[in-house]
UniProtKB/TrEMBL annotation:
Its EC number is 6.3.3.2. It comes from Salinivibrio costicola subsp. alcaliphilus. Belongs to the 5-formyltetrahydrofolate cyclo-ligase family. Its cofactor is Mg(2+). Keywords: ATP-binding, Magnesium, Metal-binding, Nucleotide-binding. This is 5-formyltetrahydrofolate cyclo-ligase. Transmembrane segments: none annotated. It catalyses: (6S)-5-formyl-5,6,7,8-tetrahydrofolate + ATP = (6R)-5,10-methenyltetrahydrofolate + ADP + phosphate. InterPro entries: FTHF_cligase (IPR002698), FTHF_cligase-like_sf (IPR024185), NagB/RpiA_transferase-like (IPR037171). Pfam families: 5-FTHF_cyc-lig. It is an enzyme of class 6 (ligase). Signal peptide: none annotated.
Amino acid sequence: MQPRQQIRQTIRHARRQLSLEQQTEAAQQVAARFMTLPDVVHAQRIALYLSFDGELDTQPAINACWQAGKQVYLPVVHPFSRGHLLFLQYHPHTRMLLNRYNIAEPTLDIRTLIPSSKLDIIATPLVAFDADGQRLGMGGGYYDRTLGLCAPNATAIGLAHDCQRWHSLPCEQWDIPLPHILTPSQHWHW
């Protein structure tokens, strides 16, 4: 098994071991930290994601954004451009469907689509991160491509559990480090 796959397997197992109480508390702490970041305070258009497979629960952050009057967008796997994401506005009553990865996403509706270059914040899921801001995702490259297209317009913020920190991640030329990573105990920034 390659090192990146071994890290993914180890970290995914560790985050699945967190109790429901630990998950809930972590999500609340990260949401509070997220909402106090100056970039988020001044943002209007924020891309978040719905948690999957033990990822830090983003629903408290989504709710906090709605309460603050911010527009929330969710990623949708692009139907025609392989490996790319679209972002659609998300409301409490948005119609959802499961994509090919079994992840809930808004039903494609061009009226709610925003060009990724117009986003202020892109919160990214991650499997692991290191002290240099490197992010290890699931391996599809969706967020690396998205961040490559959005920089420097949007601020990228990784959301994670503390157990997802790895001492040093192997990097590829296409990997884009994150300027901010939030965990329940810390705000990592570079």
